[in-house]
Amino acid sequence: MCIEWAGEQDWDRIKGYAKEHGSEVLLGVHSVHVDEKWKVTSVLSIASYNDNVEMVKLTLEAGFDNKEAMYLAAQTSMKNSDNSTILRLLLEHGLDPNIDLQVEGLVEGIYNLLMSAAAAGHIDHAIALLDHGANVNKTMVRPDGHVVSPLAFTICFGGHDYFRLFLTRGAIPTTSDVLYVFTLCLKACKGEDPRLSRDVAIQIFATFLHLGKPDSDVVRDKFNLAPPSYHDPTIANITKHYLQGRPFCCFVCEALTAASRSKLHMCPCRNVAYCSKDCQVKHWKEHKVQCTGPLNERGESEAMVKKRSKTGKGVAAGEADVGVAEGAVAEGAGATGKNGKKGKKGRGKKK
């Protein structure tokens, strides 16, 4: 009865009935035949579909605990709303963020909740799942037998923010992920992926190598598998720098170029590069204990000393305008010399 009223969105009637007969009337679950499959429906799932936070909360507080219905409510909420409140309520009331309904034989599908969050495109949902213990490395098996990870799944939807989030939350790239990233990013650079632009593909690729740190031998092998006609110059340059152990993007934000010029700024230690002074300063507290660049007793690099001597002003450690990154990956960048500056051509003698 309450489920029928929920379908009519007669929420006041449901609340009145629950108040009169007890909140357990909200716990009913019915099976319905949809698209040649049986699915469960409930007050909870219908309230989630309609983004009715109050009714979802009342139903959960009444003791609702049907796994399949809670899973479907989460899926529905993520698909229909950018508000993560309902998802967080479900998680706080017992929804397992790593639930695998394939294994339990309850639902046929290939998406776990983290993948569904990526497909929906609202990053707050993914953060909520991760905050409640979602396993960012939990894979699912597609009907064709291929194993899909949340990391690889995000690329299908052009989700650079999701991709970066998963890597910072502990995603470990697999060999399949490396192949998947190369394949989709190179296809996108050729304009063959309608959901992924070239710019986003390059962003994802740089972030993947910088944060994911996949095995170099695997990267080399998968890159060489790509047909020469698909080799993108920027992807190739990023790969080359990665395999040589050289910086190819801003250490903080993965930008490939500086804001005011086509090349990055290189730290004196030559191990990290930055797109701006802000990113360098942000990272300095962490990097200064690892930096192998020449620093004097005041904690200044050679570049800092030069700047101080020119301006006559003291420069705080980590705030110097460091040298230009050697071999920056910006397209069209010319060959660089020892200090990242283009060498001058020799002039012939006048006759």
UniProtKB/TrEMBL annotation:
Ranges for region Disordered: 331-351
Keyword Disulfide bond: no
Alphabetical list of SUPFAM superfamilies matching this protein: Ankyrin repeat (SSF48403), HIT/MYND zinc finger-like (SSF144232)
UniProt KW keywords: Metal-binding, Zinc, Zinc-finger
Domain MYND-type positions: 250-291
Coiled coil: none
A Pfam family matched in the record: zf-MYND
Compositional bias segments (type: Basic residues): 339-351
The organism's place on the tree of life at top rank: Eukaryota
Name by which UniProt lists this protein: MYND-type domain-containing protein
A single MF term (Gene Ontology): zinc ion binding
